[in-house]
Amino acid sequence: MKNDVLKKILPHLAAIVAFLLVSIFFCRPALDGNTLEQHDILGWKGMAQNAFDYKDSTGHFPLWNTNAFSGMPNYLIALEGKSILPDLSAVIGLGLPAPINYFFIACICFYILCLALRLHPVIGILGALAYAFATYNPIIISAGHVTKMFAIAYMPLLLAGLLLTYEKKYWLGLALTTLGTYLQLAANHPQISYYFFIVAGFVTLAYLITWIQKKEWKHIGLAAGITAIAVLAGVSTNAVSLLTTSDYSKATMRGGKKIDIVGNSVTTAKTTGLDTSYAFSYSLGKAEALTVLMPNSFGGNAQQTLGEKSAVIEKLTSKGVPENQAQQFAASTPRFWGNLDSTAGGPLYAGAIICILALIGFVLYKKPLRWALLAVSVLAILMSWGKHFPGLNLFLFNNLPLYNKFRAPSITMVIVQLTIPIAAVIGLQLLLFREKSQELLKADYKKILYSVGGLIAFLVLAYLLMDYGSSIDTMILERSGMSAQDEMGRLILSGLKEDRKAMFGAQLLRTIGFAVLILGLLYLYIKNIIKPLPIIIILLVVNTIDLLVVDNDYLGSNKYVSKDEIESANFTKTPIDQQILSDKTPHFRVYNAGPERFSASDFHVSAFHQSIGGYHPAKLRIYQDIIERYLSGGSDDKQILNMLNTKYIIYQNPQNGQQSLVTNNEAYGPCWLVKNVRLVSDDVQEIQSIGSTNLRDTAIVQQAFASAVAQPQSDSLSSITLSKFDNDEMVYTANCNGPQFAVFSEIYYPSGWNAYIDNKKVEYVKTDYVLRGLSIPSGKHTIRFAFEPASYKTGTTIAFIGSIIVALLVLGGLFMGWRESRASNKQNQLSNKA
Fold this sequence. Notes:
five-stranded antiparallel beta sheet; 54% helix; Immunoglobulin-like
């Protein structure tokens, strides 16, 4: 009995060891305490530093972040809830350091999916390593897209739960669907989760059609009920992030806009999502989908340059250009020739072996899952083309629920990154382990030859018919002061096209080589010269080495640096920081007027100061409008900075990059009383008026708030001062000889900020487009603004209860699944004895 148990466990232990060894080998610098200099992580850390400092002093994270964009909810920066569950990512990742843990978790989750599909364990190891080390993963890890990587890693786990449920393994299905939903949503990358649910929808539809045809009504009810319970439990555990994000997203750039800004011109607009021009940025070039199969067919990434054997060098030297100059030109010219806004970060390589096996799987596999995987793969590729395939994608953008909240269509290729390895491992299982596999493979061999041959023929046609021009060509020539009409320009373009054709051709030959390997191994198996296990091991080793070699270009040892070096380079206080921090005034803001303002590099100021700028992909829409209208293009509006309480401005000398600090003594401070309130009709008038009005004396308020506005009685003796400043609470003391109207240099966000006068809740109004305004009655009063979002309070309660339910469903489902399996095994043993 013990030997039987050990025999069952050993393959899975071997899989875990294999995943550990490969992950550690690829990320070995992490074991020495080194880390990656990920720009997105640096940006997040800059934004989150205030929240961590706040937690150190209070014991909890704030709900409002004061150090980014003059103030914004802290929900998408640093958030905590209440849960009985441990950090399951740390548990599944065995506490391994990043980025080892990312790859290991992705391996484990895909391996579980392979077990749910009842595949041979070694095939599961092949598929898991292929999924985890698909080149897109190292690329996003290098950039710091950690939440995206976690969401990608957990997709197979959730799919495994759904498939087990659909295949009538109800208890295990309940456990894994619950766990997968919880972990997928906890990764907090809505876009990846959205794409996964598209996959889940196609899979469910394929199964549903079959169930209806077979009239399996009871199973439909059970599967629907179990899935609903599991998903609701997983969703409830993430209620804090889901509810607060839903609340916040309505007010962000992703929630649409009311105005269009072009230079100084502002017009009315009405959208409910992102602009299509912004949403379709990072659209994949149609032919670039081939990087899934041929990694360097478009030159790798935008950082890699032409080599010493470039045809460009030969062309230039033939016209008398000195060889060293020609080599310098080639060394500064990118070999990447795809769309700069698509795969410039690197290819979407899933492995040539995996792609060829997937093609065979799609041809041979006959069950409903085949059609679901194939259909969603094709759709994902079409969606990834974005603006290059506008008919379909504009329709989806305007009609598919929530789709207009996301940008970067190329990210839909994560769907293909999931479906291709699934089809590949299913195909390999069919080839080698179905009953009478050799006879069936012999019968199917021509079909396999035709399908693989068709793929090669398509690639050969692409090689022959493409013109190898690129949108990057104009930039290359302009950089050197040339045009396509110049003789030298034509020579360079001719050389570039030769280089690109050679690259594509080399990748084509590479793909043919892998195809010959697979077809050769299958032929040897038909002839009974080689057994299935050696075939799988050969493919596993070759495919893993192939992926790691390509991955090394994007996450090699050179990407790692010491943690101290990162801290020193990015988070060491400069003399300017020290000078600002010596000012003990409780509340003022700092503006970085350098070229990196409002970009991914604008995080240093936020790490130490209350900043006008910052880095976050989901800014409040009204704040983005202010940036576009008054704080972009190098022409900062001083009055806008004054109303935002900008006491210090950091300038950068364009010649030497040296920074200097200017004190702005005209800043209006944290609050002020105005002499009058001007009512305007709409957003266009409001944002335009603040640029031509003395905001120190006059507040601009929309007519919609007129009932909450009383015209002030101008009085020089009346006053208002800030008496307490905290992330989630500001307290002011007002002494008014008559009715007054106060403007507060705090960002207007009504979904949580409440105003109180002498502890009585009152209505405040949107003022000066982005700020808060409040009418104050005569007398001495205490005014308090408190951030009390109902979504956070409600979400915390739901999430805590949900965590208990998730724990019960996962543990209970696993236990009942084990009991069911044990009873089934006993029954089989009795049947065998009989």
